[in-house]
Specification:
With 194 residues, this protein is α/β, with parallel strands linked by helices. It contains nine helices and five strands, in the order βαβααααβαβααβα. It has one domain: P-loop containing nucleotide triphosphate hydrolases (Rossmann fold, 3-Layer(aba) Sandwich). Strands 2-3-1-4-5 form a five-stranded parallel β-sheet, with helices on both faces. Bound molecules: adenosine-5'-triphosphate and the ligand Nc1ccn([C@@H]2O[C@H](COP(=O)(O)O)[C@@H](O)[C@H]2O)c(=O)n1. Belongs to the cytidylate kinase family. Type 1 subfamily.
């Protein structure tokens, strides 16, 4: 049975950084599920049809990391039929041996509720905005406004809203380095793997 690590949290909290490092450390597969929503939003047209016809090549577009792509993703992510169309892909990915790390918004709550490890990564709004602004070369105040809007949409939607699973361990990266965050995550996984 594959070992599944589910990582959720708001935008720019550091979950992708931790997810990649865990996958590397344990030799697991890694899926940034945000890319599925970003690619669906970027395809344009009917979002439900775009999600149903998504192929791996769509995830390789080089314009998916922009702030605009993030905003478009969070709008189409509120549509239940879009989410439903992306479930199979995520389940197939999570079923790969020897294990998989999936990061997103609803991995521990909806996609992989039986994951052996669930992490919920947070950081203060100001820290997240500063990190994202540095990453994209954008204005921190503008990033803060965009993150607020995206988080609100993600938390308030009816289907699969952003929230920690009841059995998730919280990691707050506001005042710790990337290395410290990764070390904390590995310690949590190692405790479960024994
Ligand atoms: N603990 C940390 N200390 C300092 N910088 C960090 C830390 N964790 C992540 N970062 C930086 O913050 C930025 C956002 O991190 P990351 O992409 O991992 O966030 P995310 O939660 O996956 O975001 P998104 O949901 O938008 O994909 C990156 O530039 C990353 O290098
Ligand atoms: N499991 C997920 C993953 C992402 N979303 C939506 O996509 C947007 C972009 O995600 P990033 O992780 O790349 O920032 C995000 O704001 C969510 O609206 C989702 O709903 N479920």
């Amino acid at each position: 049975m594959p070992f599944i690590i589910a990582i959720d949290g708001p935008a720019a909290s550091g979950k992708g950084t931790i997810a990649r490092a865990l996958a590397d450390h344990y030799g697991f597969h890694h899926l940034d599920t945000g890319l599925l929503y970003r690619a669906t939003g970027a395809k344009g047209g009917d979002p439900v049809e775009a999600a149903r016809t998504l192929v791996p090549d769509d995830l390789r577009r080089n314009d998916l990391r922009s702030a605009d792509a993030g905003q478009a993703a969070s709008r189409i992510a509120a549509i239940p039929e879009v989410r439903a169309a992306l479930v199979d892909f995520q389940h197939r990915f999570a079923a790969q041996e020897p294990g998989a790390v999936l990061d997103g918004r609803d991995i521990g709550t909806v996609i992989c509720p039986d994951a052996q490890v669930k992490l919920y990564v947070v950081a203060s709004n100001e820290v997240r905005a500063r990190r994202r602004a540095e990453e994209l070369g954008a204005d921190p105040a503008e990033m803060l406004a965009q993150l607020h809007e995206r988080d609100r949409r993600d938390r308030e939607r009816d289907t699969a809203p952003l929230r920690p699973a009841d059995d998730a361990t919280i990691i707050d990266t506001s005042h710790i380095s990337v290395d410290e965050a990764i070390t904390a995550a590995i310690a949590i996984v190692d405790r479960v793997r024994g």
